[in-house]
Amino acid sequence: MIYNDILPNDAAAKHNGVLWTPGDAKKIQSEYSVAYNVLLGMPGAGKSLHIDFINYCFGGRLEIIGTGEIIRIELDNPASKWPPQVRELIRKTVNSGGLIDDHMVASIARSKMQFKNTVFDGFPRNKEQARIFLNLVRVLSDIYGGQIKPAVYMLNIDEELARARVLGRKDGRTDDTPAAFARRMRVWYEQTLPLADFFAQQNVPILGLDANKDVKKPGIGQNERKMEIFDFIRTNLFTHLSFQNHR
Asked: 115-127: string of b/e by CB count within 10 Å (b at 16+)?
């Protein structure tokens, strides 16, 4: 099921008789059900900022698993337990805009996964990783004796705007170069973008969010956008996942 970012005007409107507010979102995690939220978007879509928005919708209680950030921290860690040759191979892959080995990324994500509302940034990135992810959802649901319900957020953005954002970042990463961006975009179109269809075929809800809006600067439209996304998620996702039954 795919939802588009078409938002009601009244951010406090009732949906199916339930009035959702940001305070109510704190109650949606229960001993029975949690959400595993996957964030997909091309480079420059503003994934970190949207994680903050989505976290707000979940009452600020989301566990955030950013595999790319975990890998970058480990690469810069002098006491890393990764063998030097492995670290060098990973560093070259990251700097060139490529993808790390599927099972290694899955292992990193698995080491952080708990029975908590969670958002994933950087995993899964291709169909093999997506299959591993859904298998982990099933296995962990059995282990914890509850339901883990996956959902996908697709950040939609114009490619030229994304490119300008990436190459214009003052605190850019080592892979924020024209060549690396082009490589990352090939990976996006060939491997990551098709995940929307893959997850839809698995009956995972897909929520499309408009990432073209410039709300990067603090106070410039962030509160309004935060409430827009909250209302959108409340209307389309919370009810779909039936979290209101566990308030």
From this structure: bebbbbbbbbbbb
Q: DSSP string covering 155-193, please? A: EE--HHHHHHHHHT-TT--TT-SHHHHHHHHHHIIIIIT
What Rg do the C-alpha atoms of the chain give, in angstroms? 18
Question: Measured on CA atoms in the order 228, 199, 65, 80, is the torsion positive or negative?
Answer: negative
Please tell me the least confidently modeled range out of 5-9, 37-41, 42-46, 93-97. 5-9
Tell me which residue has tokens 């090939």: 186
Q: pTM of the entire structure?
A: 0.78
Q: What is the pLDDT of residue 175?
A: 74
Cβ proximity of 94 and 125 under 8 Å: no
Phi/psi at 147 (nearest 5 deg)? -100, 125
Pure H helices in 35-101: 47-57, 67-75, 84-96
- Residues in Cβ contact with 149 at an 8 Å cutoff, skipping those fewer than 6 apart: 33, 34, 35, 36, 241
Distances (CA, A) of 216 to 11, 14, 222: 21, 30, 8
Pairing between strand 33-41 and 118-121? parallel
Position 217 scores a pLDDT of 58
Residues in the chain: 247
pLDDT digits (tens, 9 = 90+) for 133-160: 999 999 999 988 888 999 999 999 999 9
Q: Tell me what pLDDT residue 30 has.
A: 46
Question: Which distant-in-sequence residues (6+ apart) come within 8 Å of 124 by Cβ?
Answer: 38, 105, 106, 130, 132, 133, 195
The structure tokens listed for 129 are 């990783």
Q: What is the DSSP letter of 21?
A: -
